[in-house]
Specification:
LacI family transcriptional regulator (chains A, B); 434 Repressor (Amino-terminal Domain); transcription regulation (chains A, B); DNA-binding (chains A, B); LacI/GalR-like_sensor (chains A, B); alpha/beta; homodimer; disordered N terminus
Amino acid sequence: MTEKIRETGERVTIRTVAEDAGVSTAAVSKVLRNAYGVSDTLRSKVLTSIEKLGYRPSTAARGMRGKTYSIGLLLTEMENAFLPKVVRGAKEVFGAANYQVMIGVGEAQASIEQSLIDSMMDMRMDGVLLVAPRLTGTVLAGYAAKTPLVVIGHHEPSAETFDTVNSDDVAGAREAVCALIASGYRDIHMTSLSQRRFDMPAGEGEVFTMRETGYLAAMQEAGLSDRARIWRLREREGCEGPPLTDLLKVGPRPEAVFCWSDIHALELINLAWSRGVRVPEDLAIVGYDDTPAAGMPIVGLSSVNQQGADLGRQAARAMLSRIEGRTTPEHILLEPALKTRRSSGS
Amino acid sequence: MTEKIRETGERVTIRTVAEDAGVSTAAVSKVLRNAYGVSDTLRSKVLTSIEKLGYRPSTAARGMRGKTYSIGLLLTEMENAFLPKVVRGAKEVFGAANYQVMIGVGEAQASIEQSLIDSMMDMRMDGVLLVAPRLTGTVLAGYAAKTPLVVIGHHEPSAETFDTVNSDDVAGAREAVCALIASGYRDIHMTSLSQRRFDMPAGEGEVFTMRETGYLAAMQEAGLSDRARIWRLREREGCEGPPLTDLLKVGPRPEAVFCWSDIHALELINLAWSRGVRVPEDLAIVGYDDTPAAGMPIVGLSSVNQQGADLGRQAARAMLSRIEGRTTPEHILLEPALKTRRSSGS
């Protein structure tokens, strides 16, 4: 039977698989999308037939229920060494459910991001997962009306039509600054970004604003508010805003710096090294994201780990349940943890 | 006129743009795909109308000539810090021609790569650009029969149905090893990968085999063939093959090591640091790819720069001309250049 079908050149469809396995096409579909409640026996039957027949669920065939089994994933950039962890976690969950992931890179520009999301919808992807988009809640809600939408790195717990998955950036920053205070540092500054991209109510916003909140809270609790200072700098070479070198050259140097991201912290630890400023003796540094470079023994940068892979996994799970029909919003907050290394002097 | 169209809610199409600009739809299409021979006047007219009308070339509208103005880009992984440069270069050229890039991550597994390429074709992307795929030339030729195909990081100058864009890996490796020899090193080993993924004729193959060729040639030219040794190690934690630590613990240590990639070189320079092996006094190291971590002052790793952005740009240009109808193959080889830092003792 199998051979006959293939010899005649007939297309192997979900129907052929169902016939061969002796089950309904709905059952095959369930196995394909890894739906809840599929028995091991059913899965095994269907997978055996799929393998035997050489069946490949094409976009068209998969489209049965209007599905393409593909997810659009929008990243801000490729260079941020934190993002691969998020992608890996998301792909793990999507892959197990037979979804493919197509990644667009928005280059931190709202217009490029929108054009990529439009394309993902044009391609009939089943949902769009955004990481740290530059888009306002209003724009996001507009897309959420048209496609299942989940956003990582955008704090908006009041959003009703899409899900958010975040690390608790206030708690992470607070933990980092408390650790510096516990080590005896008092003059602790923070680096953040120069562009506040859009105004949002308290408790909502982009990750760096939440980290500023955590920094200020920790300083205040320790009675150090008058020593607090936030340097609003450009993200990296080529971005807008004053450079990180300003922090080292203006006035007396702080004893310690909490950086909103490893992008700043790695630049700072290298600047210090190049200028003979000893870390942590002359300057303690804590970063954020626990990127691979921070963990290199030569570098030894303390950094807050926000569990990128978990962010990706949780976001992917939220997306799958949204695709399955959930409409009540989920706003997930994960607990970060400071990874202590030499640079923070403890 | 413009306002009227928008008020009535009529869709702004390529035809509307053509009417508004007073040109043919073919001319608008030419401007949209940045075709050769478009005058500045025509481009300016059309772009003005596009902006005025708020026209967004949708997949459907763009599909006029069967085009979606999207390119599938397949990467092996997200973690390799060299790849963002390639993506940036490719996106620069594709973006200027109004093409969008959708990235799939193949996780260095042929089956995942094939499934992603299948999806890209199902989504009617206009071409597929592969970076260091795990697929054989035969499989690549199979895809090339169905879609414009350009491959980076796969040496197969005899391929007739697809283009290849590579850095000259033999020359890059040779330059790195010659520099070590010029600095007085004699016992120079190399690290490479343990898996030879498939057999290919001389002069063809994966980048690491070409770098082995360059290493061996430099050693032979200096009369050091008997001191040459290639360590075939796993790519990184989690991959197959013996770990890099083998190199430091078995027998007398070499004076210098040329690593096929910064992935190995960064691991080695950190291992040396952790064990009190001075670099370059006790062990000189040269890597490959000139990744951001290699360039950090604290790290100071010499590394061969293979101009990732140029590889991406050239590949994107090749893709555009293939989409425009070129069928004769192009096999482009770029010149790499060693970036010398502290780790190689010069």
